[in-house]
Amino acid sequence: MVRYKVIINGKRRLSAVVDSLLSSIQLHFGSEALDVFVTQKPNDAIQAAKESTDRNEIIICIGGDGTLNEVVNGIMMALAKPSPLLIIPNGTGNDFCRGQKFLLHEKNIISALQNLSPTYYDVVRICSESEERYCINVCDAGLGGYTTQILNSLRRMGIDQGFSYKIASLYALLKFEPISMTLKLDEEVHSETKFMMVTVCNGNTFGNGLIIHPDANPKDGKLHLVLFEKVTWMDYIFQLSNLKQGRKLQHPGVKYVECTSVNIQSSKNLPFELDGELMDGMNFDIELLPSILPILQY
């Protein structure tokens, strides 16, 4: 019998649509085939996904980009081959699902869970001096990581999650100073300069709906980079409308490049984030793992 593991972010209430959808899934597949796990603390979803993968269970992730990141890390850390994954967005940004245009249609979701015919997605592996992590959507060094640091502080203060994005973004733009980095693409030195942000894209959307790289596709076997060099905070604000509408930025300080591996080095600790989760280090090796994660599309 096929068994399903539902992993839910316990810190966020289910929307009415998601709650109804979960009830329909439970009714359709029955309690014997479906095990529901609600996270209580950070990394709970990693452990649950790892154990479920080793038991060869189908995983249903219900949460935002942070929960999805933990589930992907658990799947990739398991000893068994990756489990098929179905993603139901229930977060603040839901950027990966937004970029992939996953729409909550009950009939299609039930059908995907029955047919179990996944599409294989690329995953990004990031290694720093002290840890190894995986990313399904976007990772970056510089402004994005700094914004995430501020965002986490605001959330700990109890500020509304939707509003905290705006506060964190504005504060980061005003305060952040470009950082000297050495960038290697496919093991060759590409540039040594100050960057406002180095963005490594598997998916195309981050930062609560900003289409950072319209060409990025997590099924094409490529890393798509956006390099922000001599870009001021005023430049960035003026370009926000283009990012929201999915247009490439026409600015001399912004470059678009493609590769399959990246190395980012700095002489000091870099603010670095992956799918909205922070990671520490001064040296990051970033590698694309093509067609490795089976995702059930709907």
List keywords for this structure.
single chain, 298 residues, alpha+beta, Rossmann fold, Tumour Suppressor Smad4, 2 domains, 6-stranded antiparallel β-sheet, 8 helices, 18 strands, 32% helix, 33% strand, globular
Description:
With 298 residues, the protein is an alpha+beta fold. It folds into two domains: 4-117, Rossmann fold (3-Layer(aba) Sandwich), CATH 3.40.50.10330; 132-290, Tumour Suppressor Smad4 (Sandwich), CATH 2.60.200.40. Helix content is 32%, strand content 33%. The protein contains eight helices and 18 strands. The strands form four sheets. The protein has a six-stranded antiparallel β-sheet with strand order 6-5-18-15-8-9, with helices on one face. A six-stranded antiparallel β-sheet has the order 14-13-10-7-16-17. A four-stranded parallel β-sheet has the order 2-1-3-4, with helices on both faces. Helix 2 (44-54) packs across helix 3 and helix 6 (143-156) crosses helix 7 (161-175). The longest helix is centred in the middle third of the chain and has 15 residues, at 161-175. It starts with a strand and ends with a strand.
Number of helices: 8
Low-pLDDT windows of residues: none
Task: Determine the mean pLDDT.
Answer: 94
Structural class: alpha+beta
CATH architecture tag of the largest domain: Sandwich
Strand percentage: 25-35%
Name the strands of the widest sheet in spatial order: 6-5-18-15-8-9
| The number of domains | 2
Q: How does the overall form come out from the CA principal axes?
A: globular
Report the count of strand segments: 18
Quaternary status: single chain
CATH class of the largest domain: Mainly Beta
